[in-house]
Request: fold
Amino acid sequence: MDYTALRKLMVEEQLIPRGIRNQRVLDVFYKVERHKFIPEEQRDNAYADFPIPIGAGQTISQPYIVALMTECLDLSGGEKILEIGTGSGYQAAILAQLSKEVYSIERFELLAKKAKMLFDELGYKNIKLKIGDGTLGWGEEAMFDRIIITAASPEIPSPLIEQLKDGGKLILPLGEILSQVLTLFEKKDNKLYSHEICGCMFVPLVGKFGLLKND
Reply:
């Protein structure tokens, strides 16, 4: 299967027509091999326009949503990013190409180990990964220029607000299990200002400050 050709089609048929304009973002989507982040039995669908199961009840988002969230973060290359929900590792790999360093938290050990092996195999040196409750953030490494939450919550977990730098941006699917709006927040003078992007559908954020509480 010609994955290079499929990546080109993905960018030109799914991303550009829907308004993704940042050339740095588009270049990275041409480059990063999405199929390597997909379970082997699903790789024929790696560049298709829909989410794909990756195990543990989790999914890898459709390419457009990954691109949209990435573009909204407005990355220049020097940012320190916190990602909540490593999943397959694809979003982290995209962000690592566009920023200085990515700190990613995954609550499922199986997914975290798979992602770590893939990061090592592909030579990503600027991604740090840990297993834990993402709603608590990564206090030892705070503060962060950008935070991306790849699971739905009706509000931003308070530790993540505290760990976002003033002037920083945070994006998440805001809402309940069946009704969410992708929302971008900017922190100015320790106040949050929001901008709604579009409707979306993500798995629920699980954790002490999440949509679903874990024991």
